[in-house]
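Q: Got a minute? One more chain.
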Amino acid sequence: MATELPGFLALVVQGGLLLASGVTLFAGYRVIRGPTTPDRVVALDTIGTNVVAVAVLVAIRTGRGFFVDVGLVLAIIGFVSTIAVARYVTEGDIIE
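A: Always. Here it is, folded:
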């Protein structure tokens, strides 16, 4: 089922995976050491976005569409959770 990627595309996908992994590590540091709560929320959102990017890059690399579905579900969960945390930080309550 998995097809072999052309040389340049395989290199770009591998580079994207490495880049997303590195940015996720930096964002993890910001989650732990972030001076304020909004910094931590933005870092968590960045981690969620990078996980979606990794899922899509793995889908490209393996040729399996299942990982795209996983990425979409993670993106929706990340969006809803970011909105909920932003409302909690600004208003102190999620549901009125």
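A: The mean pLDDT is 88.
Q: Perfect, thanks.
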